[in-house]
Amino acid sequence: MKDLVKKLTSIYGPAGNEELVSQAIREEIEPYVDEVKVDVMGNLIAIKKGNGNGKRIMLAAHMDQIGLMVTHIDDKGFIRFTNLGGISVPNSINRRVMFKDGLAGVIGYETEVDSWKEITLSKMYIDIGASSKEETEELVKIGDVAIYHPHFSESNGKYISGAMDDRAGCALLVQTIKNISSTPNDLYFVFTVQEELGLRGARTSAYALEPDLGIAVDVTATGDTPKCRPMAVSLGKGPAIKIKDASVLAHPLVKELMISTAQKHGIPYQLEILEYGGTDSGAIHLSRGGVPSGVLSIPCRYVHSDSETIDASDMENGVKLLTKILEENINI
Amino acid sequence: MSDLLKRLTEARGVSGNEDQVRQLILEEVTPLVDEVRVDNMGSIIAFKKGVKSDKKVMLCAHMDEVGFIITRIDDNGMLKFAPVGSIDPRILPSKRVKIGDKAIPGVLGIKAIHLQEPSERETAAKAKQMYIDIGAKNREEAERLVKPGDYAVFDSECVYFGDSKVKSKALDDRVGCAVLIESLKGSYPFDLYACFTVQEEVGLRGAKVAAYSIQPDIALVVEGTTCSDVPGVEPHRYSTRMGEGPAISIADLTSYSNKKLVSLLIECAEKADIPFQIKESVSGGNDAGEIQRARGGTMTAVVSVPCRYIHSPSSVADLNDINNTLRLVQEFLKGCEAL
């Protein structure tokens, strides 16, 4: 699992530019599923057929990560940018970034401000070490997107990297695909695009697939660091079963299914109430006439930074729980 | 084109009340197409049967413009209003408007400067501090001319001036409507649906249902977009530059353009020697947001005419940009069949 998480989090894939992630996931899962396809939005859809007596279940994890889009190149070769998704000022100052071809840069800011509070993204820039507009233009063009420079660490049973949101979810789905021996259900594993820009890939894929049931796998925040915003989720206490966030109220039967499966198999879990944010289930549950939906969350510290931190055991238990849920007959 | 643009921009069409623009466009497009219908939201869908394939290509421009809706009539005969769509309240005082189907003239008013507290002078006035004065003596007289729910639109003549510039209201998005009408004069191998949508300015509503019913394979949105290449703005915040050609969007707040379509647009522009620019911001959104996410998803892209002072009675565009946008759309349509 560690190798998979490390591999997936190190791949370049900002929102709208998920191609390399899609390719890597496809290579991982192709031998284990009946069919793989890519739709018009770029969603990667892997199908594992059941015995014809089960449900149509859509599983979703998003491939995209937040990024910085080039909007302007100035006369000295510095790059101005805008955010694709939740890039924040404090998480960006003096951080290193990487473009698709591996080109590195540093995010600087106009230092003639009186207070840090005055810094906005429009007062920040990316420095790729070029000394003229022409030099930069040879390497980067308007519309190109950079990501926080990927680097993976392991410390005390924790995995640390950028893009854990949501490559951790992708890894969890990939591992689940490999683990499942047999299932009565038709499983549609969707690795979605543009979640960070508004759950866009999930919306179109849910429409096309018409599932009976939807489960998204994504990271969630925690409340276990010094003087943080209170939240009853901690690293290492098991995958979190979502009750609600700003995009969805988990369907009671889906929530119940997840809880009872965890209890039956002695898998640790926690219940999650996220007071902000949303994930792909927000789009899936409103598709067509409505889809009963829930979310399996991976607790994660420092979300939307280059050091998103998760616990190895939460991943293992998440795979175990999802595998058990999908292998059984579901009555919803 | 300049005569058409003048008629289009001077027609009244605040979101939800696009009737006058719709009539004008219906007259223009009916002779050019095989079938034209107005859907339940009020959008025009003009259909031109392809001579070769059954591929569906959708062109989209919105008919509606920002404006106001009358909410209340005061005892003294003054009208209170709410903005429809996003309007900078700083530009409003002393602007002329026309209200309702009878186009009753009015003026946007605000408390005189000598009556304002020093603190009020420090901050920009808000729309709710303003009113529309139609010269009525009292409530009864005003009620004879206007009723709550009537729409008000900027009263502004379309004027050609300077170095091939045009000034008018509603360039966003009558420039797109004009480009679509001109494009319908060509003939194409695929099925072409030209959509003139309603209620874009209040949330891309017409496009949502139009795209659902058409189910296009490819969609191109033609827009008027923000252009801030003016004194006091740093170049990295211009977004687009006037006179440098149609702006191609990589992404904005509502959609991420399909990469194949963006490549095709750039290739077409380069081959036909049409000047173009890549839009240098992701601000704003447009109908592409809903079209891209209709049903199982659609390939979409956006080209825009740069418009200074957008959403005001005096937005300004360059006629060369408008003509080059039309040329680019025509070249793009030629290239669509091969996709």
Characterize the structure shown.
- The complex is a heterodimer of chains A (332) and B (339).
- Chain A is an alpha+beta fold.
- Chain A has 2 domains: 2-65 and 162-327, 3-Layer(aba) Sandwich (Aminopeptidase); 68-148, Elongation Factor Tu (Ef-tu), domain 3, CATH 2.40.30.
- Chain A contains 8 helices and 17 strands.
- Chain A has helices spanning 2-9, 19-29, 133-137, 164-179, 200-209, 252-264, 281-284, 312-327; strands spanning 35-38, 44-48, 56-62, 67-73, 79-84, 96-98, 104-109, 124-127, 145-148, 153-155, 158-161, 186-192, 213-220, 240-244, 270-273, 293-299, 308-311.
- In chain A, the strands form 3 sheets. Chain A has an 8-stranded mixed sheet, sandwiched between helices. Chain A has a 6-stranded antiparallel sheet with strand order 5-4-9-6-7-8. A 3-stranded antiparallel sheet of chain A has the order 10-11-17.
- In chain A, a hairpin with a 5-residue loop joins strand 4 and strand 5.
- In chain A, helix 1 (2-9) packs across helix 4 (164-179), helix 4 (164-179) packs across helix 8 (312-327) and helix 6 (252-264) packs across helix 8.
- Chain B contains 9 helices and 17 strands.
- By secondary structure, chain B is α+β, with helices and mostly antiparallel strands.
- Chain B has helices spanning 2-10, 19-29, 118-122, 139-145, 171-183, 205-214, 259-271, 288-292, 319-336, and strands at residues 35-38, 44-48, 56-62, 67-73, 79-84, 96-99, 104-109, 131-133, 151-154, 159-161, 165-168, 191-197, 218-226, 247-248, 277-278, 299-307, 315-318.
- In chain B, the strands form 3 sheets. Chain B has an 8-stranded mixed sheet with strand order 1-2-12-3-13-16-14-15, with helices on both faces.
- The model of chain B has no long low-confidence stretch (mean pLDDT 96).
- In chain B, helix 5 (171-183) packs across helix 9 (319-336).
- Chain B has 2 domains: 2-65 and 169-336, Zn peptidases (Aminopeptidase, 3-Layer(aba) Sandwich), CATH 3.40.630; 67-154, Beta Barrel (Elongation Factor Tu (Ef-tu), domain 3), CATH 2.40.30.
- The chains are: A alpha+beta (332), B alpha+beta (339).
- At the A-B interface, strand 4, strand 5 and helix 5 of A face loops of B.
